[in-house]
């Protein structure tokens, strides 16, 4: 099928209403820059495109999943380009080396890194383009560039009256050559950064016009659904394919690596056909674990193996001998699903010249590897078009749903959209791992003299490296993919970053204690896992900050004063702690029938302290109020910071109150929102977010709200009824 | 079966299995993608539309039950090019994060205000409790709805003064 690429792409007009132009990339070549006389488009760099029609396009290399990159990153480039952010049209980036996240050397959006890693490069890109426009205008007017200034998309003449729009200057600006570095504007001159402004995607998302993956529509498109083995490792023995193929609208029924695909002309017909599908599964190699077995295996591993030392200071053994008492506790956390409101989906089209994929993905370069694995194509033959994401939370860093859509499309030969049901999305998620923590502390009087933390459980890179390592070396031949994956693991710290996913939030233990021993016992029960909003911090935060609360009570001290004394050397921790206690009026009496809990936790470079006010009403835990102080350095958009912190708090509370995926003989027991509930409007606590004014470099906000709220709630319940809960989710009748 | 229904003011006729959920008819047959699929079981509210003036979960409403009915979706909520006051409030308050649930949230809120122009906080919370938001935009939703309620009552008072 001959396909005019440009026409083809028009079909996929983005939410902005503009063309999602995929720049064709031969091999690993980068984005072409320069001026295109036919179209009047000037690309000064990989991010900006200014046109003779006075339009400004910005290629957004960090996907928009609700965390605010669409507005935040556009604001960064707008500030230095000297144009209102509202006049810039963002569009989602194709896969190209320029768009990699420098921290991971992969084109992925995660780890609350978007603003931190874009802060310098995007402002610099904006400043350089602006400077070239100013130089071009100065040349036209025959004046000094230093006497011209740029403002609101125009260059203004030294006389202060004449001006030229950027669009008038693009052709000339493209010929200018910059010498030396361009100074970035000081904070005092910012017009857009740190100012309260609207969200650039709010209109599209309030009118139903934002295009998510599930909304992609292509001519001649069909629909696919996939039945996956109910137990991981199950294989298809037999299917009643002929019977199902005869059903109305069904185009094909076939086996793929991940299960059995049904393709039909309409989604509902595909689902009905799937209902009629009878699969005889062979479970001889399948997982048969139940959740209890997982924790038994963790306890056995913890007994056998003290674990690799991840941090050691002083001598915890001597502290135990010399202290007057030792406190021990074991904490456990369940598997958690992501439950993005947009279920997993992807659309793929295999043609003679390659494959095109449309998907809500956090890692399009890994998506190419996933699609390449199940076709005869190489990554360069595969184009990924990213859409808006109906939630990510780490789930869409793993590309299994693209792999499936590619496998189906490869066989069908016309555009096919594969949509997961909610039940499939819940049961075949890759989970936040279940974890176990063994904590020990020694005290002498009220003094905490030793801290021991043994983390027991898997690490995520073991699962993630399969597609991540090849994505780092897209020129490597495909037969190398699995080798690259294992080399990545063996050469951890060299070929791939050290995997902190199990230990982050534990090894940074911030309190001043002379003897510290932190270990990780690495054990993996074989249940698929991936990144989940705040990752290791989500479980280590609960263990560390609950145990700190236990120790405060053991020492007979107020939990605030106890922490304060031990964190006095960390000014940013101390500030958020003091602020939140003041805001929550910690010293005053608690309302009748309620109690307060406190937690202090740094993650993704951001300092967060929270006070939770909770009680038990009609046999259920009720959270009334969460007060939160946060220090995330400089703020690009205060409203988005508040939103992310509040959203993180509700995400954490959902986990604390309800979050639990259980397995029974290898089968996941939960399926939809009735048995995997999310916090609802009527349960919402009042949330107060207090942001520390700062001139430090910006740090993440998407995730840091999550970890502290879980222990803060548990600590409040202990204050309420004296019952210490060491496993999640929390119970009203513990 | 042949099914006729009015969608956003337009008469639409189609030939389709009567058990097809209204959601997929709207999205895939009529091209109205603003209504979202979230759970398929009426638990999350992302697919909320108005059928004969009542909010329904279109994922669990067979199209045959909507036959002859009057359906309004997020695309038809405003009047012509003018947005519904709630949509303006949603933009002003920057409610959406990922945005996926917001069509359903707005449709639930619109029904509330159509039936009760001056709801209390408790009434708003009760009306919005069937709509899940995974991002946690609940407080902005309440603020946006209350701003429309306040504008409406200010307008009424202004007219009286």
From TrEMBL, chain A:
<dbReference type="InterPro" id="IPR008274">
    <property type="entry name" value="AldOxase/xan_DH_MoCoBD1"/>
</dbReference>
<feature type="region of interest" description="Disordered">
    <location>
        <begin position="299"/>
        <end position="319"/>
    </location>
</feature>
<dbReference type="GO" id="GO:0016491">
    <property type="term" value="F:oxidoreductase activity"/>
</dbReference>
<dbReference type="Pfam" id="PF02738">
    <property type="entry name" value="MoCoBD_1"/>
</dbReference>
<dbReference type="Pfam" id="PF20256">
    <property type="entry name" value="MoCoBD_2"/>
</dbReference>
<dbReference type="InterPro" id="IPR000674">
    <property type="entry name" value="Ald_Oxase/Xan_DH_a/b"/>
</dbReference>
<feature type="domain" description="Aldehyde oxidase/xanthine dehydrogenase a/b hammerhead">
    <location>
        <begin position="207"/>
        <end position="285"/>
    </location>
</feature>
<dbReference type="InterPro" id="IPR006311">
    <property type="entry name" value="TAT_signal"/>
</dbReference>
<dbReference type="InterPro" id="IPR052516">
    <property type="entry name" value="N-heterocyclic_Hydroxylase"/>
</dbReference>
<protein>
    <submittedName>
        <fullName>Xanthine dehydrogenase family protein molybdopterin-binding subunit</fullName>
    </submittedName>
</protein>
<dbReference type="InterPro" id="IPR046867">
    <property type="entry name" value="AldOxase/xan_DH_MoCoBD2"/>
</dbReference>
<dbReference type="InterPro" id="IPR012368">
    <property type="entry name" value="OxRdtase_Mopterin-bd_su_IorB"/>
</dbReference>
<dbReference type="InterPro" id="IPR037165">
    <property type="entry name" value="AldOxase/xan_DH_Mopterin-bd_sf"/>
</dbReference>
Automatic annotation (TrEMBL), chain B:
<dbReference type="InterPro" id="IPR036884">
    <property type="entry name" value="2Fe-2S-bd_dom_sf"/>
</dbReference>
<keyword id="KW-0479">Metal-binding</keyword>
<dbReference type="InterPro" id="IPR012675">
    <property type="entry name" value="Beta-grasp_dom_sf"/>
</dbReference>
<keyword id="KW-0001">2Fe-2S</keyword>
<dbReference type="Pfam" id="PF01799">
    <property type="entry name" value="Fer2_2"/>
</dbReference>
<keyword id="KW-0560">Oxidoreductase</keyword>
<dbReference type="Pfam" id="PF00111">
    <property type="entry name" value="Fer2"/>
</dbReference>
<dbReference type="InterPro" id="IPR051452">
    <property type="entry name" value="Diverse_Oxidoreductases"/>
</dbReference>
<dbReference type="GO" id="GO:0016491">
    <property type="term" value="F:oxidoreductase activity"/>
</dbReference>
<feature type="domain" description="2Fe-2S ferredoxin-type">
    <location>
        <begin position="1"/>
        <end position="77"/>
    </location>
</feature>
<dbReference type="GO" id="GO:0051537">
    <property type="term" value="F:2 iron, 2 sulfur cluster binding"/>
</dbReference>
<dbReference type="InterPro" id="IPR036010">
    <property type="entry name" value="2Fe-2S_ferredoxin-like_sf"/>
</dbReference>
<dbReference type="InterPro" id="IPR002888">
    <property type="entry name" value="2Fe-2S-bd"/>
</dbReference>
<dbReference type="InterPro" id="IPR006058">
    <property type="entry name" value="2Fe2S_fd_BS"/>
</dbReference>
<keyword id="KW-0411">Iron-sulfur</keyword>
<protein>
    <submittedName>
        <fullName>(2Fe-2S)-binding protein</fullName>
    </submittedName>
</protein>
<dbReference type="InterPro" id="IPR001041">
    <property type="entry name" value="2Fe-2S_ferredoxin-type"/>
</dbReference>
<dbReference type="GO" id="GO:0046872">
    <property type="term" value="F:metal ion binding"/>
</dbReference>
<keyword id="KW-0408">Iron</keyword>
